[in-house]
Amino acid sequence: MKDNGVIVGVRVSHDRASVDQLETAATDSQRHAVESLLSRPGVEEALALQTCNRTEGYVVAPDHETGLDALSLFTHDISDDVAVTMDHEESLRHLLRVAAGLESIVLGEDQILGQLRDAYEDARGVGGIGPLLEDGVTKAIHVGERARNETRINEGVVSLASAAVRLVDRECSLDGETALVVGAGEMGQLAAKALSTRVDRVIVANRTVPHAEHVAETVDVDASAVALDAADAAVEEARIVVTATGSNEHVFDAETFAESGETYVVDIAQPRDVPADADGVPGVTVYDLDALESVTEETRAQRRRAAEAVERLVDEEFDHLLTQYKRKRADRVISAMYESAEQVKTAELNTAMTGADFDEEQREIVESMADAIVSQLLAAPTRSLRDAAEEDDWSTIQTALELFDPEFGPESGDPPAAIEDVAIEDIPEGMRDEIPASVLEQLADD
């Protein structure tokens, strides 16, 4: 697989999209999304990141338009003012910002870093990760770790679950109350732990009861586990319900809450576990992802100073990432150049030594001299190619690839160019001053 494509991205996230629009953009699973993207024409690599407040897709394609065509998987039913498309550099910078927690509803929240790791593993598991996304995603994860280890970006409320508890705590006293947590995944675990500091009892409901029991065992208050089909009965015991399952259908009907009395429901599932009309049941208040914005805005204000430091960190690491890509592309050309020179050197040595009466020591001297000549001849072009990559002089890189890389371009079956096959006008101007005059004269004579 060649690494001369571009990354193209698209995102549908909480800053523009409603909960309904987020649901529309989401696919069955990250792995399925990656498999679908890889089946599109021209797509060589793919990544999908789906959380409760974002759906994002990234592909490596030969050009921007090909990438956008593939990413219509996420946007075909989404209006243009909601979906944001990103070019190569925008995609990379955004990935770094996402991992650092700068794009989350709760600024600096920790969960997104684990979710990005999961997305990376899902994509890698179905062959979606190649050289471009490998460097981009691993750099993003590194940035996310640095942001949390070196700044105070994740102090205070760091999860949607914590924000949900704070939201309800404003409306009523939770002391002595019972809370129901529906779902035993990561968000359910976080909700149970956050609630355990405010209520006297926690009930955990889940389709797989042992998973619910495990969550119940991790909290420091009276806790019990029930099956998901017992959740309706548990609603009557609870003052606060936090639901965070991965179900594709509603877990509750509005009628479930008809006899529950004063109940606060926080639905942080994607798609929703609770229908929107449940908010109309007397005594029932339903909060969804959109409602969490009011709580998280306070957190954003508290963390703004830390975020400024993280922004500088992202800028620094983004520059390093671009330089890393440039060096790799230059190194590809340099490697091809040395391979070509090595083939010519080997051929000429074989010709010179055929029939010659050299002993072993003499052969080693001649071979060492040939190696030294190649190294000295290529030292200056090597520096020039690296400088060209640093300065975004891709015309020089392109010309060098055409000269030395047998797998580059339409004539991919041709062998590496030998010196007699190269015309002086084929040599990039940035390299000519570095090449010995005798070589240039030979090229001119040919």
TrEMBL record:
Every Quinate/shikimate 5-dehydrogenase/glutamyl-tRNA reductase domain range: 173-295
Pfam families assigned: GlutR_dimer, GlutR_N, Shikimate_DH
Gene3D superfamilies documented for this protein: Glutamyl-tRNA reductase, N-terminal domain (3.30.460.30), NAD(P)-binding Rossmann-like Domain (3.40.50.720)
PROSITE patterns for the chain: GLUTR
Residues binding NADP(+): 183-188
Keyword terms, alphabetized: NADP, Oxidoreductase, Porphyrin biosynthesis
Pathway per the UniProt entry: Porphyrin-containing compound metabolism; protoporphyrin-IX biosynthesis; 5-aminolevulinate from L-glutamyl-tRNA(Glu): step 1/2
Function: Catalyzes the NADPH-dependent reduction of glutamyl-tRNA(Glu) to glutamate 1-semialdehyde (GSA).
Record protein name field: Glutamyl-tRNA reductase
Organism: Haloarcula pellucida
Lineage: Archaea, Methanobacteriati, Methanobacteriota, Stenosarchaea group, Halobacteria
Gene name linked to the record: hemA
